[in-house]
Design goal:
Number of strands: 10
Radius of gyration: 29 Å
Strand order of the largest sheet: 6-7-8-3-9-10
CATH class of the largest domain: Alpha Beta
Number of domains: 2
Structural class: alpha/beta
Length: 464
């Protein structure tokens, strides 16, 4: 398992690791070519970090060996660098002192260390911040510092354990491009761990897919795309001629009910994640939009305060907020909730407002003959009269919220039904795309039917 044009740099032979009776790594064997960029993906908790710890000799294997250039791997003899999930700067050292740490430990001569330090610092764009401390630099510089320290020792093997997993999408893409430039310039051998399939395809020349515990090598995928890569290149897209047969969709559905997807989650887990995210945004839309719409429909003062802002927001398509929010904050849970809310709150306001306006004027006049105040009329007449329109808002808002969620997950997410559609496209699996789309429709329809049932029960007296 190696690219045919590369000399073997690292050989992993029958690597096995147990913790007591728990078998984590089960007889893994593979070869990494000299200067190769290899990515390893697998479900969460399958043992990817344990795997790297064994490769770096932080943990001794229970069985098997790792060879570098034909000799047993030894951190004291070979240059093995490790980039951890979290940045690991030493706060008492400056940026350049942090970058030079590995070279100090390896005993580089001072003149060679200074020459290498200047070269690496310039390569990653840290020369201007060389004398600053970690608390004085940005998150991207912190991550570049960590990567620069790893590359500075001219490693025989560079191990990277999901180093960009906690970063925003925009920053992750930027640092991935920087990593590829470094790798192409310095010709290092890299093993990059990730659970993000898109990231693996974007970076690696070859991908190994691990199974659940006990981890075995489930598949090997060669990525025959030149660097630098772009996500909008035609090679990343599914050909329009590829269609999913109903039988393949049904077969995939049966498998994914129990067998994890490449990111480690079964279909039901993605469904539940999407329902949670959509549910939070939907509830916020109702809790803010409905009371605001009712108040704007009856009270002139409230309408005068909020209508100008509402008229500005209303013409903007909800999906137009997605790129802007990604640029500002990335797509985390609350990013998706914001996108859902901004789309859902508008129909809530409109329907509730319209419902109040439909209150029978004769009833209002009748109430005034009894000396009813504006608040009493609002509470006892306007709100009950608006209920049919309010329930209409529930249905409309649900559809908009569900659509906005899937759109946000399609653009930038590592979980949920929209992510499954995106992943199916990238992996050229049309049956996964169709399965996720059908699931989106079925789940949305079931929620809509539940709202219908509640509406019929609560409004039965009004509609008789």
């Amino acid at each position: 398992m190696i690219n045919g044009d590369k000399k073997a740099k690292v050989v992993v032979s029958n690597l096995t690791r147990k913790f007591g009776d728990l078998l984590v790594l089960d007889d893994l064997s593979f070869t990494v070519g000299e200067g190769e960029f290899l990515s390893i993906v697998g479900p969460t908790g399958c043992g990817k970090t344990t795997f790297l710890n064994c490769l770096s000799r932080l943990l001794p294997p229970t069985k098997g060996n790792i060879f570098i250039d034909g000799e047993l791997a030894d951190p004291k003899k070979h240059n093995i660098s490790f980039v951890f999930q979290e940045p690991t700067p030493m706060p008492w050292r400056t940026v350049e002192e942090n970058v030079s740490f590995g070279m100090e430990i390896k005993g580089f001569p001072k003149d060679k260390m200074r020459e290498r330090l200047n070269y690496i610092m310039a390569l990653v764009g840290l020369s201007d911040t060389a004398h600053l401390y970690p608390n004085q630099i940005s998150a991207s510089m912190m991550q570049r510092l960590t990567v620069a320290r790893a590359f500075a020792v001219d490693p025989d093997l560079l191990l990277m354990d999901e180093p960009y997993g906690q970063l925003t999408v925009k920053l992750r893409y930027y640092l991935e491009d920087e990593l590829i430039k470094l790798w192409q310039t310095l010709k290092s051998t890299v093993i990059f761990i990730t659970h993000n399939i898109e990231e693996a395809v974007y970076l690696a020349e070859r991908i190994l897919v691990l199974s659940n515990k006990p981890a075995k090598i489930k598949a090997e995928i060669k990525v025959n795309l030149p660097h630098p890569r772009k996500l909008i290149d035609p090679q990343f897209l599914v050909p329009s001629t590829m269609l999913a047969a109903p039988s393949s969709v049904f077969q995939l559905f049966l498998v994914k009910l129990t067998d994890p997807n490449p990111d480690g989650a079964v279909l039901s887990a993605h469904v539940w994640i999407s329902i949670q995210e959509a549910g939070i945004g939907y509830l916020l839309s109702l809790l803010i939009g409905l009371p605001l719409g009712l108040l704007m429909g009856w009270f002139t003062v409230v309408r005068g305060v909020f209508r100008p802002l509402f008229e500005i927001i209303r013409p903007i398509p909800p999906i137009a907020w997605i790129p802007l929010y990604i640029f500002w904050f990335g797509i985390d849970l609350w990013g998706k909730v914001f996108i859902i809310w901004i789309g859902g709150v508008v129909p809530c306001v409109i329907n509730a407002w319209a419902g109040v306006k439909m209150t029978n004027p004769t009833l209002i006049q009748m109430a005034r003959t009894y000396g009813a105040t504006d608040w009493q009329i609002f509470k006892k007449l306007c709100i009950p009269s608006a209920l049919p329109m309010v329930f209409g808002a529930l249905q409309i808002t649900l559809a908009i919220c569900w659509t906005n969620l899937v759109a946000a997950e399609l653009l930038a997410s590592d979980s949920g039904l929209g992510f499954l559609i995106s992943m199916g496209r990238r992996l050229a699996l049309p049956e996964m795309v169709v399965l996720a789309m059908v699931t989106v429709g079925v789940v949305g329809a079931l929620i809509g039917l539940a709202i219908d049932a509640v509406e019929k029960r609560l409004l039965a007296g009004i509609r008789r």
